[in-house]
TrEMBL record:
Protein name: ABC transmembrane type-1 domain-containing protein
Keywords of the record: Membrane, Transmembrane, Transmembrane helix
Transmembrane portions of the chain: 5-27, 33-62, 69-98, 104-123
Organism field: Elysia marginata
Length: 128
């Protein structure tokens, strides 16, 4: 009888931890998806702003009507675009890495807490 109770306790602990892990992973996936969507929207907004600025500069240059200035501005604009895109990409990669590390840390802590709590509860149930 004691052997059967111990086996049942082990099965209960394993199933509860698996269920908790699955729930956490589902929540994690959904929040990460939301996070990625927000990042994509921010990137699109930044790109639109850059394009608008470029168009305004081109219109100003065309109104001035000087070819050398036009070339200079195009060169400056290309450099600015390259720098901003690389900075944006680096920031996004860093944010994603930090986010994933933080999420993993939280999942590990929650798993440890649930395992400790379930083990303690089942031990109390068997002892008393």
């Amino acid at each position: 009888l004691a052997f059967i109770i111990i086996i049942l306790i082990i099965i209960i602990i394993i199933t509860t931890t698996i269920i908790v892990i699955i729930i956490i992973l589902i929540i994690n996936y959904l929040t990460f998806l939301l996070f990625v969507i927000i990042l994509i929207i921010i990137i699109i907004i930044i790109i639109i702003i850059i394009i608008i600025i470029i168009i305004i500069i081109i219109i100003i240059i065309i109104s001035i009507n000087q070819l050398s200035l036009l070339l200079l501005f195009f060169f400056i604009i290309i450099i600015i675009i390259i720098i901003t895109t690389t900075i944006i990409v680096i920031i996004i990669i860093l944010i994603i890495i930090i986010y994933l590390a933080f999420r993993l840390f939280i999942i590990i802590i929650i798993m440890i807490i649930t395992i400790i709590m379930s083990c303690r509860r089942h031990l109390q149930m068997t002892l008393f």
